[in-house]
Amino acid sequence: MREVVVVGVGSTVFGKFPERRPDELGAEAVRRAMDDAGAEPEDIQFAYSANLYGGMVIGQAILRECRITNLEITNVENACAGGATAFRKAWYDIGSGLYDIGLAVGVESITTSSIVGKLIPPAKGDLAGELGMNMVGRWAMAQRRYMEENGVSLQQIAKVAVKNRRNGCLNPYSQYQKEYTIDEVVNSRMICDPITLLQCCPNSDGGAAAILCSADLAPKFKRKPVKVIASVVKSGDYLYRSRSIGFSEMTARSVKEAYEMAGLGPEDIDVCELHDPFSYTELAHYEELGFAKPGEGVRLIEEGVTQIGGKLPVNPSGGLESKGHPVSATGVAQIAELVWQLRGEAGKRQAGNPKVGLAHVLGGEVTELESGACSIHILGR
Amino acid sequence: MREVVVVGVGSTVFGKFPERRPDELGAEAVRRAMDDAGAEPEDIQFAYSANLYGGMVIGQAILRECRITNLEITNVENACAGGATAFRKAWYDIGSGLYDIGLAVGVESITTSSIVGKLIPPAKGDLAGELGMNMVGRWAMAQRRYMEENGVSLQQIAKVAVKNRRNGCLNPYSQYQKEYTIDEVVNSRMICDPITLLQCCPNSDGGAAAILCSADLAPKFKRKPVKVIASVVKSGDYLYRSRSIGFSEMTARSVKEAYEMAGLGPEDIDVCELHDPFSYTELAHYEELGFAKPGEGVRLIEEGVTQIGGKLPVNPSGGLESKGHPVSATGVAQIAELVWQLRGEAGKRQAGNPKVGLAHVLGGEVTELESGACSIHILGR
Asked: Which of B8, B29, B206, B232 would be a feasible disulfide site paired with B36, CB 3.0-4.6 Å?
C-alpha cells in the first residue's frame, strides 16, 4: 500500500431541506471539496457514493451534475457507516494502485425520502420489531444497562448533550446552534425512557465529500494534504450479542485493528469524531475506543477532557446530536471535520493543534435480522 | 494484479416469492455457492452484497444467516449492474492482495419490496418523468429508432424473445419455462408500442452468489476454477446522449476496455450472457459488443449464430426475458451461468464446449437525472 492523502473536503450545511434532492446536496458537497482541493472534473478517475434512502445510482446523478462522467462509480450502503465505507474504498483503490485520484461522497435526504414521517414496518421474522421494538427502544435498553452497570446518572449523560450542542453552536455546518443546560436536556420531552429528546440526534439532510490521491500527487493540489493512517470497516453484531448490551464489541475489535495499522494507541489521538446518535453512546465509545477504562468513560466528560480546550476534544463539530445525522453523509462529514481540525481551519471550534484524529461510526441493526457495520479512520498530518 | 478465479457459484430459482425475505434468498444463494466450492464459513474473509430495494445492510443479514460474521462487508448498488459491481469489487480486493478468499452476492425481492404494484414517482426536476415517461417508454422510443435506422422488423425482434424463452425452458433456475412463437410474441398484450408483453423481462425475486479466491488457493476447493480475465464497471449516459438513442456508447466503451484487459477480441467469445430487459436490446448489444457490425445485429439472430448450437450462443440461461431479472442479482447470476457453461455443467442448455465467456449488464437511467452503469466481465478456463 502506498500512502494516500486527503487533499480536499466539503460539506453542505446539515438541516432539513424539503426543496433539495439528495443528488443536489451531494453535488454541492462534491463541488465544495473540488474547490477546496483546486481539482478539476477531469482530475477525478473514480468515485464512491454512499446513500441509503435516495433510490438508485445516486452517485452517477451527483457526479453528472458536477460534469464528472464516464468513469467507475460505485454506490455503497452500510447504514450509518455508509459514508465511511465509501471513504475506505476510495482510500484502498488509490493505495493499492488501481487509481491515483478519486472521491468519496456521502449524502442523505431524509426529508424528501419516502420514509419521512412513517414507521418502517418490521421485516417478516423480525420478532422484536413485530412486538414494537424500534431503534430508540433498543438504545434506551442499552443506556439503562450502561447506567446500571457503571453507576452513571442521567445528569452525567446529559453533560455529553450539553457539550456537543455547545460545540454545534461554533460550527456553521451544524443543523442546530443552540446551547442547553443539563436540566433542559434531562427534562426535555421523553422519547423512550431514559432517552429524552435532547439526548437524540435529529433527522437530517446533507452531504459531505472528500478528494483523495496518492501522496506523490498531493503537490498538484492547493491544500496541505492530510494522511490516511488507518482505515477499517468491519461487520458484526452489536448490542445484542456483546458481553453487555451497553458495550460495542464491534467498535473495540475495529479500533484495535486500526491502532495496529497506524502503529498508534489511544494516547496518540488528539481529536475524535465519534458516533453519538444518543448521548450515552459517547461515554460507552470512550471506553471501547480505549480513551477510558471500562466503566470510566464518564470521568472524561466530568473532567472536561473531551471538551474543546481539553486534552482530547471529542465531537468538536457538534456530533450527530447537534451537527445532525444525514445517515450516509455522516462518515464523510467526520472525515471533513478531522481534516479541518488537522489543518487548523476549524474556526471557533478549533480543538487545539491536533496532529492525529480518529473517526468512528457505527451502522445497522435496526431490525433483529441485521448485523451492523463499524468503521474507524485515523488521519494525521 | 494476481490471477483471481471463481471456485463456486450458486443461485436460487428465480420467480415470485412473496413469502421469502431478500436476505433469505441471498442466504440460499450463498449456501449453494459455498456447497459448490466446498467452502466453510471460516474460509470467507470479506464479502460484497448487491441490493436495491431491500433496505439497509442486507449483506450483513445474508451472511449472518450463513454464520459468516465479523468481517468486512460492503453493500453496493448500481441498479441492474449492482451484482456485477459486487463481483468486480470482490475480484479486485483479491487480485490486489487485500484478501485471499471472498464472495459476491446479489439479491432482489421485488415482490416483498415497498415498490411492488406502485408507480415510482418522478424526482423533482425529472421533466420527462413528470410528463409521464417511464422505463418502458424510453426503451420503446429507442427500439423504434433502432428499427427505423436499421430496417429491422418486429417479427425479427420477436425472434430474440423466442430464442431466449426457448432457452429458459432448458434452465431449472428460470422463472419462465414456456416456448412461444413469433406471432405470439408480436401479438401479446401491448405494453408500450412497439414493445409487447413477451418482449419484456418480468419482475423477479432471486439471489445469486460466487466464491472467488486467488489462483494459488484454488486447489483448496473441490471445483475446477474458472478464471476472471477481465472486469470493467463504467458509468456514463446511455440512450439519451449517445449518437443514437438506440445505441449504448457506454457498452461500446466498456467492452473495448475489457477486450484490451483480456487481450482478446469479440471473435474469441464462445458464450455470452447479456442484458436483455427488452428483446430488441439484444440485437443492439450484439453490435456494441463487437459481435456484429453496426446495423447487422439482426443477422446473428436470423442466421442462428446466437442460439444454443450456434457459433456464439447468447443468453443460453434464458436471459432477463425468461430466466427473470431480480435487479441486483442479475449480474452475479450471469457469472454463475458462465461458470456452469465453462465447466460444461449447464445440462440441456449447454452451449457447446466454450473456453471464454462474456457477461454484460447495464443499469440505471430510469429518470432523466441519472446516468447509468455498465459492467463487462470475461471469464475463461
From this structure: B8
**Model pTM score:** 0.96
Q: Which residue's C-alpha cell is 453528472?
A: A64
Nearest to A141 by CA among A237, A235, A236, A240: A240
Catalytic residues of A: 80
CA distance A12 to chain B (A): 19
Tens-digit pLDDT profile for chain B (381 aa)? 999 999 999 999 999 999 999 999 999 999 999 999 999 999 999 999 999 988 888 999 999 899 998 899 999 999 999 999 999 999 999 999 999 999 999 999 999 887 766 666 666 677 777 888 888 888 899 899 999 999 999 999 999 999 999 999 999 999 999 999 999 999 999 999 999 999 999 999 999 999 999 999 999 999 999 999 999 999 876 555 566 777 788 899 999 999 999 999 999 999 999 999 999 999 999 999 999 999 999 999 999 999 999 999 999 999 999 999 999 999 999 999 999 999 999 999 999 999 999 999 998 865 555 578 999 999 999
Which residues in A55-75 are b (16+ Cβ under 10 Å) and which e? bbbbbbbbbbbbebbebbbbb
- Which residues in chain A are closer than 8 Å to B74, comparing Cβ atoms? 76, 78, 85, 89, 233
d(CA B305, CA B2): 35
What domains does chain A contain, in order, with CATH numbers? 4-114+204-226 (3.40.47.10), 127-202+228-380 (3.40.47.10)
A&B contacts, CB < 8 Å: 152
